[in-house]
Amino acid sequence: MPTKIIAVANQKGGVGKTTTAVNLAACLAALGQRVLLVDIDPQANATSGVGLEKTEGASAYRALLGEETLIGRIKPTAFARLEVVPSEVDLCGAEIELARMENHLQRLTLALQPIRESKRFDLIIIDCAPSLGVLTLNAFAAADALLVPLQCEYYALEGISMIHRVLGQVREAGVNPRLELLGVVMTMFDGRTRLSQQVLSEVQEHFGEKVFDTVIPRTTRLAEAPSHGQPIIHYDKYSAGAAAYEVLAQEVLERLGGGLKVES
To answer: How far apart are CA 146 and CA 148, in angstroms?
Structure first.
């Protein structure tokens, strides 16, 4: 089967986007998928979240400019079947440089093409910056599917309506007509509060079956794991956060379909 590419995006910060990208990638790898995590957020939190240092010159920057291959930037992690293209602050400059280039929205697509053709990975997860800038639009252009983490709070729907509008524009402009909304995952859910329940209900009403059944709880262990450079299933395998991301990974595989195998 061809490699599937999932962009994890929300232009609002602090919604659990990188937490979802890192932990979903790790759980998919634990299920037997060969996963590449591509960090295109200059903050590089996904990079440190899988235990890699932020190293000058290690990012996809030069590959996006067409000066080198992206394959040469892939690094192993301490976790089986999970590799990463790290990020660092130089990607801030890529936003400006890419905007001046021909086919500026297709640079990531071109950089990922040889990796896709190599069939080295089953899945590529792209952690986007918390914005709708050139790098995020490049991820939208390269991806088969978009996964949107949404925090259980009142302003949640404002963010997703904007992403939905951009997704439609990306398709209609011919930048990436195949891009689909894989789903919306509710994060930082606190079942004890009426607010979390209300927001979940409102989002389900708005997006129906596009909302994943799995909700990600607000937990201390999930918040601690990145500082140890470990996804939650390796930091605290029996925690509520680990259980939630394991079930979400199963749901993602079911939605992707297409012959992706799960290890028992």
So the answer is: 6
